[in-house]
Amino acid sequence: MLVHASEFRLNPSRRVVPVGRLIVQVKNIGEDDHNLAIRAANGHILRITPVLHPGDLAELRIRLTPGRYWLVCTIPEHEGHGMVTAFTVRKPARRR
Ligand SMILES: [Cu+2]
Fold first, then answer.
1. How far is the CA of 73 from the centre of ligand 1 (A)?
2. pTM exceeds 0.85 for this model
3. Is residue 96 part of a domain?
4. Dihedral sign of CA atoms 92, 10, 46, 59 in order
5. Domain count of the chain?
6. Ligand 1 centre from 3 Cα, in Å?
7. 6 alpha-carbon distance from chain centroid
């Protein structure tokens, strides 16, 4: 999954991903500093990048169980300005 971060939104390339290992690449395409965290439904931050300056790239790697998760920028007030979006981790379809 690739995520573009800018003022003030997070734009992920996918909103549904299969269960298992997930690699999230994030690029700050904006003009302010941002970061990217993966947040679970219980509010826990599972992974977080360092602060990304304009043009910076970072990568998060994680194994996730099925469910709903959030991508969020944790820089003060950025989430409230719109830098949060959900994605879903889904079990693979059963083979026939
Ligand atoms: Cu931000």
1. 5
2. yes
3. no
4. positive
5. 1
6. 12
7. 13
